[in-house]
Amino acid sequence: KNNSVGTGMSHKPIDFNDIGGQTPAKQEIQEALEFMRKSDRFKAMGIRPLKGILLTGPPGTGKTLLAKAAATYTDSVFITASGSEFIEMYAGVGAQRVRSLFESAKKQAKKFKKNSAVIFIDEIEVLGGKRGSHSSHLEYDQTLNQLLVEMDGMKTDPELQILVMGATNRADLIDAALLRPGRFDRIVNVDLPDVTSRLQILTIHTANKPLGEDVRLSMIAKETFSFSGAQLESVCNEAAIYAMREEASFILSRHFKEAIDKVIMGEKAEKKPTN
Ligand code: ATP
């Protein structure tokens, strides 16, 4: 069963158990999602629906995964977009793209016979940045205004509930208008994993891999201070590649050591100035 549409097509639906660590984030999000799962009761109490959740934190910490899990948890269609897709040189194009995004959520929900949709917008600071702060600010302003219009208009359709989840690693750049009640009401921090969370993430990403007897994931978790979930996934994958190159049947401790070095070196190479 695949409930994903848009650019982030995934084959197996992601659920909260596929995400290591992030316990407070998962709890906050699940709590917030109750309004979609029990919408009748919330309506009966006169509680206004939650429209937006903003996920903030460094790259590769699981923000996209959390949004996908939210869609699975609420039996919603999942639509993804990135803030940079909305920025065009021509006036009005960005605003038009925002409209199409919400229209496609409605279409997809209808097609898959779902009564809710999660719209995930990665790098939302690009489109929801402080107004007037960009060089071609008119275009940005129109795009952000259109997002606000769409979010304000979401309440009326009884057939379809839409939740917008935005992700950013620059929460400081977000326009205050997006953070007002009825827009991104909840802000959820998605931080780098601590040692316990790193162990959980390593366990998830080695579940389908043959590990040698000398491998202690708890040691690897200790040695990967400040690694993100995405980097830990990369460590597991690279370690398997090193093992395969040696035609080993199991991934050994030294393969993980090499993989950790490679991921650290890769990061350094990326950060090196190019001039
Ligand atoms: P970005 O800000 O760069 O878009 P992100 O926070 O959205 O990053 P994801 O796209 O969710 O990060 O994570 C990238 C990949 O890293 C995931 O597909 C997964 O393989 C791995 N990963 C990241 N965080 C976790 C986690 N908490 N548990 C398990 N895997 C994780």
Automatic annotation (TrEMBL):
GO biological process, one term: protein catabolic process
Gene Ontology MF: a single term: ATP binding
Protein name in UniProt: ATPase
Assigned GO CC terms: plasma membrane
Keywords: ATP-binding, Hydrolase, Membrane, Metal-binding, Metalloprotease, Nucleotide-binding, Protease, Transmembrane, Transmembrane helix, Zinc
Membership in a protein family: In the C-terminal section; belongs to the peptidase M41 family. Belongs to the AAA ATPase family.
Domain AAA+ ATPase intervals: 49-194
Cofactor: Zn(2+)
Residue span relative to the full protein: 32 to 306 of 482
